[in-house]
Amino acid sequence: MAERSFFQKLKRGLFMTHTEVIEKVKEAFTPELGVDQGVVDALEEGLLGADVGAELTGEIIGKLEGRIRDKKISDMDELARVVKEETRALIPQHVMQTIDTTKAKPFVILVVGVNGTGKTTTIAKLATRWKNEGKSVLLGAADTFRAAAIEQLQMWADRAGVPMVKHKTGSDPAAVAHDTVAAAKSRGVDVAIIDTAGRLHNKSHLMQELAKVHRVIDKELPGAPHETILVIDGTTGQNGVSQAKAFLEAAKVTGLVVTKLDGTAKGGVILSIMRHFNIPVKFVGVGEGADDLIPFDPNDFVDGLFDAD
Fold first, then answer.
1. Cα–Cα nearest to 24, from 13, 11, 10, 40
2. Which residues partner with 295 through β-bridges?
3. N or C: which end of the chain has fewer CB within 10 A?
4. Which of 308, 277, 292 shows the shortest CA–CA distance to 55?
């Protein structure tokens, strides 16, 4: 039942992206001609418009054209089935990978991403999710370069009813990370979630800072952080690929959260990122509510994107 609920939320969140792809195909399709080159061209245009990316779009279209030559595809349902099949074959089929917080105690999560991606609200939603599951959660405000970032995270911590470790603005982020992990250990906390700065204007500085945070956390709790999650704003489309590349160089990213899918027709970027970097998407954001951050399943995503109805 929960899985169906997740899928329905995902489909609603993908409405704009789905429309970008399917409506162009429907406009080009006529029953008399079946799936002809005009339909294929419309699908290619729709995939590019949904920010699936030129490389993956080209591969999908190439596979589709081969299938059309081998066996004529006569209707939209069959076209949708074939496109879904070929897309699944081209992207890494990571199983549904939610974050397993039972693997360590405290389970430490480092959250990275460009400012404005929804990083702080994602942290709040994750904290609320695990608190509602009966886990104790502690937040760490290691984005110390912006007073607003600390204040915003404090607001969300208060709203979620979870404690937070913070230092004054301008403090060493690694010191905040250390104190968060130390507090989580001493208090017997189940999950510690640490926010980080989201500046990309000086990549070398960012790399050094994140590397230092990793070292300090690992020294305080060997093996931690257990997850490093990159938050990407789905509305940025292919810019999300560039962000992913930059942060992969700077941090040992283990998974992605893609936010704001409900507000964009560029949700196909998830396929492009998975194809480029072979990193599992852990959650996707499809709304403002705490329960609108849902576990990601690549098969459901492909279904939601390409269903003909």
1. 40
2. 283
3. N
4. 277
Reported residue count of the chain is 309
| pTM, to two decimals | 0.88
CA pair distance 85, 77, nearest whole angstrom: 12
| CA 38 centroid distance within chain | 33
Which of 212, 151, 144, 225 lies closest to 181 in space, CA to CA? Answer: 225
137-141 and 255-259 beta bridge pairing: unpaired
Reported as a single tens digit per residue, the pLDDT across 135-191 is 999 999 999 888 788 999 999 999 999 999 999 988 999 999 999 999 999 999 999
Burial of 93 (0-12, 13-18, 19+ CB in 10 A): exposed
Instruction: Give 37's contacts (C-beta < 8 A, 6+ positions apart).
Output: none
| Residue 178 Cα distances to 52, 167, 244, angstroms | 39, 11, 25
- Other CB atoms within a 10 A radius of the CB of residue 277 amount to 16
Nearest to 112 by CA among 231, 206, 204: 231
Q: Which residues lie closer than 8 Å to 134 by C-beta, 6 or more apart?
A: none
Residue 49's CB is within 10 A of a number of other CB atoms, namely 17
Convert the pLDDT of each residue in 97-141 to its tens digit: 778 999 999 999 999 988 888 899 999 999 999 999 999 999 999
Angle at 266 between CA 262 and CA 272, to 5 degrees: 120
In degrees rounded to 5, what are phi and psi of residue 252?
A: -85, 75
Place of tokens 């939209």: 76
Phi and psi, residue 144, nearest 5°: -90, 0
